[in-house]
Design brief:
The structure holds two protein chains of two kinds.
Chain A lengths: L3 E4 L2 E4 L5 E7 L5 E7 L5 E9 L2 E4 L6 E3 L9 E3 L8 E8 L10 E2 L3 E5 L1
Parallel strand pairs in A: 2-11
Antiparallel strand pairs in A: 1-3, 3-8, 4-5, 4-9, 5-6, 7-8, 9-10, 9-11
Chain B lengths: L2 E3 L4 E5 L4 E3 L2 E3 L5 E7 L5 E7 L5 E3 L5 E5 L4 E6 L8 E8 L9 E2 L3 E6 L1
Parallel strand pairs in B: 2-12
Antiparallel strand pairs in B: 1-4, 3-9, 5-6, 5-10, 7-8, 8-9, 10-11, 10-12
Classes of the chains: A mainly beta, B mainly beta.
């Protein structure tokens, strides 16, 4: 099991450019999440998905889009990069709450800088 | 509003000393409680979790945490710290319902260990 994998590990963007952060999990988890981590702020939820074809906004969704065409993949899209999107992005996955196992498994992160 | 407070932004201890990291939460009912650790450049790893039952929870790497309902606290402890414990520690809560396993993170406590 590779767990949750993210690509790329690092990226520098210019203002206004777009990019997609990739996330894949091989644990057959229904739920997937995208977080951003800013210094001293903990992790904030951007978007989440409870299954293929179903996505919803978290706390800080502005400037981002997601899709979930398969159980395994949950890409995060930045359409018009802004300096405020400079952050470390983490993808995570889990089983449903009702399963009794509420642990979220995290990927290694993508460090994004927008200049 | 639900929130998690980690009062200590940065803690420094000597190797072999005991450790306690504080976590307080604000929530209407007892939520699920978690401690995650993030080593430099890595994703988050679950240390331990509390759902119900015994209020003293054992985790990996020799960590334990005690849930105190009266104080809305879930403090993390370790009797003897090792240099490899230097990392950032996040407390998180999840409501008992909500469907998508929403996690609310504290801002984190960065632990430094002196030899």
């Amino acid at each position: 099991n590779a767990g949750v994998t993210q690509t790329p590990k690092f990226r520098i963007l210019k203002i206004g450019q777009s990019m997609t952060l990739q996330c894949t999990q091989d644990m057959n988890h229904n739920y997937m999440y995208w977080y951003r981590q800013d210094p001293g702020m903990g992790l904030k939820l951007i978007y989440y998905s409870v299954g293929a074809g179903i996505t919803d906004k978290g706390e800080v969704p502005n400037g981002y889009n997601v899709s979930r065409s398969t159980t395994e993949d949950f890409p995060l899209r930045l359409e018009l990069a802004a300096p405020s999107q400079t952050s470390v992005y983490f993808c995570a996955s889990s089983y449903p709450l009702a399963s009794g196992s509420n642990e979220q498994f995290f990927g290694p992160g993508t460090r994004l800088t927008v200049l | 509003a639900q929130s998690v407070t980690q009062p200590d932004i940065h803690i420094t201890v000597s190797e072999g000393a005991s450790l306690e990291l504080r976590c307080n939460y604000s929530y209407g009912a007892t939520p699920y409680l978690f401690w995650y650790v993030q080593s430099p450049g890595q994703g988050l790893q679950l240390l331990l979790k509390y759902f119900s039952g015994d209020t003293l929870v054992q985790g990996i790497k020799g960590f334990e945490a005690e849930f105190k309902r009266s104080q809305s606290s879930f403090n993390l402890r370790k009797p003897s710290v090792h240099w490899s414990d230097a990392a950032e520690y996040f407390c998180a809560v999840a409501p008992l319902s909500g469907g998508y396993n929403k996690l609310i993170f504290g801002a984190g406590t960065r632990l430094a260990v002196h030899p």
